[in-house]
Amino acid sequence: MRELCLSSELYPVSPADIAALADTPADLQQHVKDEITVLIGDSQSGQTDTLLSGRDAVRRALAENASSVPVRFAFFSKIGRFDFITVFVKPLRARYKIFSSNIYHIAPLEIRKLKIERNIRTKENAYVFSNPLFYYDEAERMLHWDFTGVPMQPDQPYDCHGAYSGSALVEDGVMYVYYTGNVKLPGDFDYVTQGREANTVLVESRDGRTFGDKKLLLTNRDYPADYTLHIRDPKVFALEDRYYMVLGGRKKNDCGAVLLYESCDLENWRFCRELTVPMKFGYMWECPDLFCTEGKWFLSLSPQGLPRDEQEFQNVYTAGYFQVNGDFREGCRLEDFREWDKGFDFYAPQTFTDESGRTLLIAWAGLPDVEEEYVNPTIESGWQHALTVPRVIREQNGRLLQYPVPELEALRGERQLPDKYPSSPDCYG
Length: 429
What we know:
- The chain is mainly beta.
- It has helices at about 15-20, 55-65, 85-90, 90-95, 110-115, 115-120, 140-145; strands spanning about 5, 10-15, 20-25, 35-40, 50-55, 70-75, 100, 105, 130, 135, 165-170, 175-185, 195-205, 215-220, 225-240, 240-250, 255-265, 270-275, 285-295, 295-305, 320-325, 330-340, 345-355, 360-365, 385, 390-395, 400-405.
- The termini are far apart.
């Protein structure tokens, strides 16, 4: 008889999902404890999931309108007890994956309390239940964020003075994280053309929590000779059969520009060209983000050194985007720069694409080098700055419109109308 295996964790699952299951045959129910246990079938062979034990507990949970019940999952292993080779050979493990016939809704808040996110998200274990067993509520992920530590410390000679910002790309279950390793050498330097290192570093992770060894990919010797030592903030993305990286830079003539690199393997990068404009537009372009939304390409960046105007560029540093006219890989024009946000404390925005294809924008609610103009009062409490709420980006006639993500509506309180404007549009407290 095949060995019945049990999950090591209890998962907080919607009781309605469990109530819909049929009961497992009685001869198998003696193998489990008196708790809610689901026996995973195998969708590939037509075997459906069944409830092995705990029907009464599920009924009580439904009567009490409980949002979740603790569930243990059981399954019959397809691997023999003494088959040690298959466990370590990935191509063999793939034959033994067990796919559930159902989708189970997990209570995200309870997941965070139990600290079992990694168990739920794993797709590598070949002899337990696998994707698509769990559904993780996107709205909850957008609203609630937990601090899980600092996975990368500036602990190498090539990043000893700071791990500056970068980006991540996920491919085949591996997260490739790129950032700038900052080094300031001791001595009498201007730290613009001398005394500084700007290194592009890669580190990989399979779970988003533990990271492997760092890899030094690019140093100042790999950047064009007409650039200063201020090159940073790699943004990496895939397009067709290639990978591309944009880096923000400051040229020796004090003009900002973006460097474009190309790769076939995410590690070896070749310089292609620079993206810039004919006239000087600031001395440094930080935090570049080259992205496509609704079929049109845009270059977002944070230029430093723009003269302040009565109606625009009022902050110490600004953030905005160009429309990209033409193929950025061969030759293009950057046109019609627009600010993302004219408010204070908005900088270094980056876009992301979620599972549904939406383009989302998140920025740093803060600015560097503002000490001469104002001081953030939160410094007295030991902190300053935050991230902005996510925004959905939509293109309209070459302009990008921004909307708060609809998930934020879950945080709204009771609708309130101020007395002064009794006929005003919707207003929430």
